[in-house]
Amino acid sequence: MWITRRRVLSLITGVALAATGLAAPAAAEPVPAGAEPRPAIFIHGSAGSAMQFRTQAKRLASNGYPIDVIEAHEYDSPNIATIITSVYADLDSRITRLLAASGADRVDLLAHSLGTFVTQGYLNSSPARAARVAHYVNLDGRPAAALPGGVPTLAIWGEGDPARTVAGATNVHFPDQSHTQTVSSEESFREIYRFLNGREPRTTSIVPQRDVRVSGRAVLFPSNAGVGEAVVELYPVSPLTGRRLTSRPARVQPVRADGSFGPLPVLPYARYEFALVRTGQATHHFYFEPFLRSDSFVRLLTSRPGEGIGALVDTSDRHTALTFQRQKEWWGDQGDELWINGRNILNGANAPRNKRVIGVFVFDDGSDGVTDLTAPLPEFFAVTFMTGMDVFIPAAQQRLGTVKIVSRQRGGGFSAMPVPNWKSSEHRVSIEINDH
């Protein structure tokens, strides 16, 4: 009923404006109180995935969005110039499916960085495409001289040129927030929710649930292609040591052809390991902080042996290699700390604010048993949003031990994330630190 009333109101308004000879402004149309929210689709940036929007998706769900109307449109960002037409066509199909499943009149699109180039191009490519989009959120990306496709737009900008705008849009600047932080921050969420719904959110927190289910995809970084012929094993782990509490996994599930897995039931305050097992390859262990509520945006980012940036990591029986990810940049020169076995590995040389680091590779460079934090590893530092450190972390020789990991965020926030000291010759370890 609310869709009909909204359309009638829109028609009456259009007739009145036509009678006066005035054009209707591109104003944001709020969702009426009590109505189901429109589907929200996130389009990531360069080398991104659904992971950048994990926190905001759970904040939306905490404010009444059904989890199945929040999706991410993922693509092979390094090859976007050659696949843009198919990315548009796939987005057409996604919108059609979501509209049919939800009964909504239109969808809302949110894009970050390179994703704003993709989305602005999509909206400008066809009036029919733009007509199926109620709102567009442009997150720290491409400026524009007009509203993309004429769609009401919120443009959120972080640090950088304060003159950046999308003409005709609601432009909001957070000069103390970095590039990815503008996607995941509490302040950004408040602006997004208000714009999409025409009212303040009930909460900006992630509200815990009792019945929590986790799903996602195992994908090759950075193409987002699904990992084939793999199995996901889910283990409960000790919050004190990170080691498995059971010898057998709580759940075992083959990865589907597109890399998807789940949903898997978990306890909201427990910690888990996701083990990605592939024949003839090192087991890849993924550790997350507790899942307070259901999460469909989990991504197990991996690569094939000898391919990608992971191929640059030195391995041996003597040391553990770790990869960290956080959807809020680490500023090693301005308050962020990442402690491993009692040593803070971040500093102004390897994680300066202007590097916008969200991915950190930590291993014993040269397998020489020596730690050197005076400079970053150049082959990693040269990659956008990444850095690398030469840190010797002794690996288990017989029985597994523990790598003590503590993260302290600038402005407050503390996470303790111990993990086992797996041998890097046989195991890969990735750790996702919350951005809130």
UniProtKB/TrEMBL annotation:
Domain AFL C-terminal: from-to ranges: 211-305
Keywords of this entry: Hydrolase, Signal
Signal peptide (residue range): 1-18
Gene3D superfamilies according to UniProt: 2.60.40.2190, 2.60.40.2200, alpha/beta hydrolase
Domain annotation AF-1763-like C-terminal: ranges: 325-435
Domain of life: Bacteria
Gene Ontology MF terms in the entry: hydrolase activity
UniProt name for this protein: Alpha/beta hydrolase
